[in-house]
Specification:
RNA-binding, Rossmann fold, ten-stranded mixed sheet, S-adenosyl-L-methionine, alpha+beta, single chain, RsmB/NOL1/NOP2-like_CS, binds S-adenosylmethionine, transferase, tRNA-binding, 29% helix, 3 domains
Length: 848
């Protein structure tokens, strides 16, 4: 590609990392940006000018940054080795082309650069905005790379400030993590990746120690494997034992979350659909030493990335310039406090909560942190962690110790005393707007002292040319009972209530915990699950329990302002393409409501039923694939009422199994869990196992598959042929065309096998080891991969964009029609199995 030029007007100045102002050198060349939107709002500007009190020059930089388009940013995901391979491609193939592109005035385009504070240079940004990269032809190849790798989960198009909260959580492989408000899921994906860091290498290292005994050929030892730290998570043969529960109150957004996280194929994930203010207590098996004592899950890490007014996202959501009103933030304050209090309750002692918003308003930030700590008994129970040395290179401001509140009418208030005085003196005698005491800075004097709110982090848009973000890390020091909202604080001199049993009134969200006066980490098992909000198998009171909460801060407000804000462009890009078919949703029609009953929210999910290891299907799978006895066979699960394998068999971790079995019938709304490991497949003869290994489950199981079902491939060109051709022939000496694997594919028994791609290391663009499902039938072979994955691999490894070749397309179409008809008849196993199984439909082995 020679020098390429793109045109446009009104491109504004400013760039990344300018340290107060960015690079103001962009005028002259460029592109159009949102010309129709007037980026002015008097109330907004007056309020923040009064609040932030920047010197004049910095104030201008702040507003100028907010009016500019956001730089383009993305993150390489997945296992480290894999992420580094995709990153290498950016550096060697795309950046050299990008630097040849010129602005209208002849200046070269600035290439993407690593975000300086992100570990391992896995996050990148570039000053050219997203919509320019998307639309201008010189960027077409780069854009294709971004889209292709995003679609298969190797790249996340995430805004840089949104990457900060998970980085501060220090998540380990064995941590139990909750993301309370997780949709659409970019931070949840980051957290899940952290749970899996180092796992692949640990598992291989463990397997290698048994390889000779088990007759496994694991190929060459990688450097990562040699350096793997088995002590990082020692209890399950190197596998990650941690868990992420990703929750969102909004059912539809919850399914975007499933779509986003499913790409990571993690058995360490559960997705739930609950109001975070009432997130339920999750039951675990009792400790063997105390079999009669109920045990509940507590978390090592919690992310509370709460619904907020979002005024830090003005760059990404320019409509906010006209939509911002002072009331937005006020309506969210109480919900935010409740979510944070619930997070602190659910945390282990020593655990950490990260509280974050994309708002700059202290009423949603410092005021929430202070109010939640206060309700949990003060700084003796919950500390604010000093993160000043974390993420060096990230420019930030400390949290505020004092601030003002703007009410719905635009009037600015300095203190709660001022509000009370107004109430006393006014005729109406009522508090204006939705003002409450906890919105205001803590008063001077003994009660208000000592809250180190300066440890909170404020990331302003002009500091590094980003969006705005607020982040605070809190640590639980001891167990406590949180004071309810309606309960007055202890009189001065008395203990704040830490560790004291307190009467819970209405507003305390979890009735299970409230039911037991001294409950701390083991809430009493209540007869009715407290946090069930709808469609519970056992009808329970729940909406009634939360009446106080809904009365003083209607959730409608919270959702109107925060939860149901329109999708921004990142989110929209991540949205499932096939909107009509919500992934993870059942195929069953929504349940019919008996007349006169309140309408149910959400839909009923299929149950999760675990298979007995002695089940004939499990035995057949073990025999056929010669699975090592070291692979756990008590974690297989199906999703139908009968508990019989019908279409898909899932795999989960041991902890997930415990949670799903212990909480069956308790009304907890699990909407996703488990990785599809085996899919039912028509087989040409009785000797062939009808359960093929699904691509998603392959990374988990392939190391345990016996050599009789493995094909080792080293040649890049052989791999290219398997990727580009669907159903290449092996009959009539066709196998001879397959170079080093020819004889092996001729001789191996029919059915599914593991294709282990083990590059010989000579080609720098072909270094990644992979394991993929391959189906052998009488006449042909077929890689059982979705078309998107094939195309993405062709692009990545061969820079090849040619269409896939499918010689049996017609047969496929007929088969697809047959499958579709059969699907309509299937009622027993819908759930996630109901979602299109593209490998089975599009890549079905040719019927022979
Ligand atoms: C700021 S967004 C979260 C963004 C997300 N953490 C990410 O990184 O992609 C806030 C989310 O909170 C959800 N939400 C709103 N009210 C909630 C509540 N009471 N409980 C749980 N989730 C809630 C909304 O549906 C929305 O998806």
């Amino acid at each position: 590609m020679g020098r390429k030029n793109f045109r446009g007007k009104n491109r504004r100045g400013g760039g990344r990392g300018g340290g107060g102002g960015g690079r103001g050198d962009r005028a002259g060349g460029g592109w159009k940006e949102y010309p129709a939107i007037v980026k002015e709002n008097k109330n907004l500007q007056n309020f923040y000018d009064a609040l932030l009190q920047f010197p004049e020059e910095e104030r201008e930089q702040y507003w100028a940054a907010l009016r500019r388009e956001l730089p383009n940013s993305f993150r390489f995901c997945g296992s480290k080795g894999h992420a580094l391979a995709v990153k290498r491609l950016l550096q060697t193939r795309y950046i050299p082309e990008i630097v040849k592109i010129e602005h209208q005035d002849g200046r070269p385009v600035e290439p993407p650069l690593p975000v300086p504070w992100y570990p391992d240079e896995l996050a990148w940004w570039m000053t050219t905005p997203k919509n320019v990269v998307r639309k201008f032809p010189p960027f077409a190849a780069f854009q294709k790379f971004l889209v292709s790798e995003t679609s298969i989960g190797n790249i996340s198009r995430q805004e840089v400030v949104s990457m900060i909260p998970p980085l501060l959580m220090d998540v380990r492989s064995n941590h139990v993590v909750l993301d309370m408000c997780a949709a659409p899921g970019s931070k949840a994906a980051q957290l899940l990746e952290m749970i899996h860091v180092g796992e692949e290498a640990r598992v291989r290292k463990t397997l290698r120690s048994f390889a000779q005994e088990d007759g496994l050929d694991l190929g060459k030892e990688t450097q990562e494997e040699a350096e793997a730290d088995l002590d990082a998570d020692p209890t399950d043969c190197g596998r990650a034992t941690g868990l992420l529960i990703a929750n969102d109150a909004d059912y539809k957004r919850g399914h975007m979350l499933v779509h986003q996280l499913k790409r990571l194929s993690s058995p360490n994930l559960l997705v739930t659909n609950h109001d975070a203010t009432q997130f339920p207590s999750i039951k675990l098996s009792p400790d063997p030493e105390r079999p009669t004592e109920a045990k509940y899950l507590k978390f090592d890490r919690i992310l509370a990335d709460v619904p907020c007014s979002g005024d830090g996202t003005l760059r990404k959501n320019p409509n906010l310039w006209k939509d911002w009103t002072p009331g937005n933030a006020l309506g969210l304050h109480m919900t935010q406090v409740r979510i944070l209090v619930r997070a602190l309750q659910l945390l282990k002692v020593g655990g950490k909560v990260v509280y974050s918003t994309c708002s700059m308003n202290p009423v949603e930030n410092e005021a929430v942190v202070a109010a939640a700590i206060d309700r949990c008994g003060g700084l003796d129970n919950v500390g604010i962690v000093d993160c000043s040395t974390s993420l060096p290179g990230l420019k930030r401001y400390p949290g505020m110790a004092s601030w003002k509140i703007i009410d719905k009418s635009g009037r600015i208030w300095s203190s709660w005393e001022e509000v009370q005085k107004f109430v006393k003196e006014s005729k109406e005698g009522v508090v204006p707007g939705r003002l409450v005491e906890t919105m205001f800075p803590r008063p001077e004097g003994p009660e208000g002292q000592g809250m180190p709110l300066d440890r909170c982090m404020r990331v302003y848009p002009h500091l590094m040319d980003t969006g705005g973000f607020f982040i605070t890390v809190l640590e639980k020091k001891t167990d406590f009972r949180a004071r309810s909202e309606n309960e007055p604080k202890s009189a001065p001199g008395q203990s704040s209530g830490a560790g004291q049993p307190q009467t819970e009134v209405g507003a305390e969200p979890n009735v299970e915990e409230a039911a037991k006066p001294e409950a701390t980490d083991a809430p009493a098992a209540a007869a009715a699950p407290a946090a069930v909000v709808d469609q519970a198998p056992e009808p329970v009171k729940a909406e009634a329990d939360s009446k106080d909460e809904t009365e003083d801060t209607p959730m409608e407000d919270a959702t109107a302002n925060g939860a149901k804000r329109p999708l921004d462009s990142d989110e929209a890009e991540q949205e499932p393409v096939k909107k009509a078919k919500t992934e993870g949703a059942t195929d069953s029609p929504a349940p019919q409501q008996p007349a006169g009953k309140p309408k149910q929210r959400g839909r009923i999910e299929e149950p999760f039923k675990y298979l007995d290891p002695s089940h004939p299907v499990i035995q057949n799978i073990k025999d056929f694939y010669k699975l090592s006895t070291r692979f756990p066979d008590d974690r297989y699960m199906v999703r139908n009422e009968m508990g019989e394998p019908a279409k898909a068999i899932y795999y989960t971790t041991a902890l997930t199994r415990d949670i799903l079995t212990q909480n069956e019938g308790r009304g907890i709304k699990f909407v996703h869990g488990g990785v599809r490991m085996y899919m039912k497949q028509d087989a040409p003869s009785a000797e062939v196992c009808r359960w093929r290994i699904q691509n998603e489950g392959m990374p988990i199981v392939h190391g345990y598959v016996g050599e009789p079902r493995v094909i080792h491939l080293r040649n890049k060109e052989t791999f290219r042929r398997l990727l580009i051709e669907m159903f290449p022939r092996i009959a009539d000496d066709g196998w001879k065309e397959f170079d080093e694997i020819g004889e092996r594919v001729r001789d191996i028994g029919m059915g599914c096998c593991v294709l282990r791609v083990e590059p010989d290391g000579d080609d720098p663009d072909f270094q990644e080891t992979m394991a993929l499902p391959l189906w052998k039938s009488i006449h042909s072979l077929n890689l059982m991969l979705p078309k998107d994955d094939r195309s993405a691999m062709l692009l990545r490894l061969f820079n090849d964009t040619s269409p896939l070749v499918n010689i049996t397309l017609k047969k496929q179409q007929q088969q697809q029609q047959k499958d579709d008809a059969a699907k309509q008849d299937t009622t027993e196993e819908n759930g996630e199995e109901g979602a299109t199984d593209y490998a089975a439909v599009e890549d079905l082995p040719s019927p022979e």
